[in-house]
Design brief:
The protein has 94 residues and is mainly alpha-helical.
Length: 94
């Protein structure tokens, strides 16, 4: 999952002629560190939703890569619980 998120971010950075990420640092701010503007964030949202079925800005504003990852993991965890009927059990998602 993290490799795909990095790939999506790098597509956006490449369009802006910015240096690609070699490693995904979850503490990076989308706006401050990666210098994403509102159009970049809209593209990120669409690409994440297409890939993972999650609207990262649905409930609240996200600022860091970590918050993006957590949104995806939370949605996947809820889906797993719904489809398996296993509420409250922790699943490892990689």
């Amino acid at each position: 999952m993290e490799n795909k998120i990095k790939e999506i971010i790098n597509i956006i950075l490449e369009k802006k002629e910015k240096e690609k990420l070699e490693k995904l640092d979850q503490n990076l701010s989308l706006r401050n560190d990666l210098e994403m503007d509102s159009l970049d964030l809209a593209e990120l949202t669409v690409r994440i939703e297409d890939e993972f079925g999650v609207d990262i800005f649905e409930d609240e504003i996200v600022d860091t890569v970590k918050e993006v990852v957590e949104k995806i993991e939370k949605r996947w965890f809820n889906w797993i619980c719904f489809f398996t009927g296993e509420k409250g059990k922790k699943h490892i998602i990689s």
